[in-house]
Write a structure and sequence with these properties.
By secondary structure, this protein is of the alpha/beta class. 20% of the residues lie in helices and 28% in strands. It has a nine-stranded mixed β-sheet with strand order 1-15-13-5-7-11-12-4-14. Helix 3 crosses helix 5 (170-179). It is globular.
Length: 257
């Protein structure tokens, strides 16, 4: 059989398992809240058009609206000012094969449980690599914190002094981009940066450095605890929005059954 025939057979027989890494998109799902002087991310909104009634007797459908960065979503390079001139940097121009890539999953869930402001550093990554091997080039790095098991206000975790969520520092992002040439960074929190990332140098290093290098981001992932440290393949195809800075999407992981 060809490679694709073998793959299709593996799917049908359960030798390849599909894991959904996506939160259900509904109006209650938290969104990123910026300082009031800035424009805000719109939550998911939905309106019924008809449901087998006088508005449409044989069909059910709804209108919906949201920000490009609502729910489980994809960040394209043009999302950040550092990536505004990256060629093919919007979701409609990214090469389609870039939406299917292998992944490494770094488990720092115990550290995040002990410290809601846990900061991932380059040294943490090197310790992980000492156990699991070097991160191969052009792989997603998924930062597991089990943050997705939270909900509501606890998920956003915003207090008077700002958001308290785990994320990488500048050393970690530079290491992933400059030393490992990763495909992108995926996280379980609302943003790829830590809640305190605005105070780093540069501010919000995950956005600043990743997108400036033409790399991608995935936010609001779940079920990372079901993935191996290495060996999963991620399918993350955003809506093909003209000049899109990002998009809600359904992220799937393929793993050995």
């Amino acid at each position: 059989m060809s490679v694709l025939e073998s793959f299709g057979s593996a799917l049908l027989t359960g030798n390849v398992k599909v894991i959904d890494l996506t939160h259900t998109l509904d109006p209650e799902f938290p969104v990123l809240v910026l300082p009031p002087e800035f424009g805000q991310c719109e939550p998911f909104r939905i309106e019924e058009v008809s449901k087998y009634d006088e508005r449409g007797p044989a069909w059910y459908w709804r209108n919906f609206s949201c920000n490009e960065h609502t729910g489980t979503h994809f960040d394209a390079p043009v999302h950040w000012v550092t990536g505004k001139d990256v060629p093919n940097g919007s979701v409609d121009t990214i090469r389609p094969d870039h939406f299917i890539r292998p992944a490494c999953v770094m488990d720092f869930s115990k550290e995040a449980a002990a410290d809601e402001d846990f900061i991932l550093t380059a040294e943490h990554i090197k310790v992980w690599e000492a156990e699991h091997g070097a991160i191969p080039a052009d792989h997603w790095v998924l930062f597991r914190t089990d943050w997705s098991k939270r909900s509501g206000l606890e998920y956003a975790n915003v207090r008077e002094d700002g958001a308290h969520t785990p994320g990488p520092d500048t050393s970690a992002v530079r290491y992933l981009v400059e030393e490992r040439n990763v495909h992108g960074l995926g996280v379980e929190t609302i943003g790829t940066d830590a809640g305190k990332g605005g105070a780093f140098d540069p501010p919000y290093p995950a956005h600043n450095i990743l997108h400036g290098a033409g790399k991608y981001g995935l936010q609001c992932l779940r079920n990372l605890d079901q993935l191996p440290a290495k060996g999963a393949v991620i399918v993350s195809t955003p809506l093909k929005i003209k000049d899109g800075s990002g998009s809600p999407l359904r992220v799937l992981a393929l793993v050995d059954g």
